[in-house]
Amino acid sequence: MRLTEEQEELRSAVRSLLARHEGPAAWRPLTEQIGVAGLAVPEEYGGAGCGAREVHAVLEELGRTLSPVPYLGSAVLTVQALLASGDKAACARLLPRLAEGRAVGSLAWAEQGSWDPASIRAEAAPGPDGTWRITGVKEHVLAGAEADVLLVAARTAAGVSLFEVAVDSTGLRRDPVVTMDQTRAQACVLLDAAEGRLIGTDGAGDRILSHVLNLACTALAAEQVGAAERALERTVAYAKERVQFGRPIGSFQAVKHRLADAYVLVESARSAALGAAFAAAEDSPELTRYAAVAKSACSEAFSAVAGEMVQLHGGIGITWEHDAHRFLKRAHSAAQLFGPPAWHRHRLSAALGLTVG
Length: 357
Fold this sequence. Notes:
Strand content: 15-25%
Oligomer: single chain
Radius of gyration: 21 Å
Mean pLDDT: 95
Largest sheet: 7 strands, mixed
Helix content: 40-55%
Order of helices and strands: HHHHHEEEEEEEHEEHHHH
Number of helices: 10
């Protein structure tokens, strides 16, 4: 499986732009010059009408630079939740702003460290004039503190449902969270009878979030592959330059073996991530399997490669000034985002119809 020439050109354009713009400042040129925020948004809502393979290309490049831009939370989670809801009015109202990058979206979903829709305990009760009152606590909300569009999953009498909550709503508090990985902004969202507007059908949240989970894992896998690839590149370069006992450390057989093993991990992870991206692009009925494999394999590969980056850089690898610790922190935090590898292997077993102990 390979990306097309156009998709590779997109990758090159993103890489070139990120070389000129670092940190949060890259978001505006990414959206204005390349239009990354609207890649997966249908043309009728002001987007490019592309799919998961284009998203894969963008996220690999964002992963290489550990970019802190809100692409994953806004252009993937929020956009895909709106599209999966089937609410055309909400899509027409919200997606054009998100597609242009004029607004950042956030999906408040996880509770008590779980992204399983069955774990949602936040409650929504009917209010006046067709509105709802939502009460609960949401964790690990990507870009939650600065988002302009906030979607919240909560439980009604009909089941889990999706709501839009105005960011200035009474009863809403968004607290930035200090995380180990400071390159990915997260927030804790607290709702105390905050007013919400139903998105889609009441009780359709399980279906929406299950679909979004697969797409989120697919997208995150691409980011993990890009970051792992860059970590390996930098480690190989250092092994060629660092001299010990009169020769570059990369010439020692033990180091060669470790780098070769890391290369195999990166390329195996790339195959898993691409498999999930192709399945998502084709709306395959087996997407859950591909996404679970990708999330599990790419999480463990990135963690292993980032660990080797720190160890093979030696003393400099554990200093604050070097980027090795940033790759390690991103690796371990990304492994837990959307659920740890073990949980996704459990999902894979269930999708295959195997007995899970």
